[in-house]
Amino acid sequence: MAELDFETFLATDIRVGKVTRAEPYPEARKPAIKLWVDFGDEIGELKTSAQITDNYSPETLVGRYVMGVVNFPPRQIGKFMSQFLVLGVPDENGGIVLLAPDADVPVGGRMH
Question: What is the pairing mode between strands 33-38 and 45-50?
């Protein structure tokens, strides 16, 4: 694994957000869910799609905190424009588990 210098780490803007809306994304090549996430007043609401259907349904995501990289350039995912990268790790079966704070925190808070 390549080493990362501290300046590069600081340039990666990882924030906490709260899911405001979630919908199935049946047009995606692999099963996915469209997410709209509120990152607070400074950033606002951003959208993304995520291959998280092994562990989540759209109904279970609204109101949930997530962590996301908000300073990647937008990326076209099929017919949907992704504006940030939601963060997760694979479980023992390869399904993604979302990363989130373990306490209530203000949306938009930057990871340190």
Answer: antiparallel
The CATH number of the domain where 39 resides is what?
A: 2.40.50.140
In the chain, the percentage of residues whose pLDDT exceeds 90 is 87
Compute the Cα dihedral for 24, 67, 75, 40 and give only its sign.
positive
State how far the alpha carbon of 104 is from the alpha carbons of 33, 63, 65, 101, in Å.
24, 11, 8, 7
**Interval 32-44: pLDDT, tens:** 999 999 999 999 9
User: What is the 8-class DSSP label of residue 108?
Assistant: T
- pLDDT 10s digits, 88-100: 999 999 999 999 9
Domain count within the chain: 1
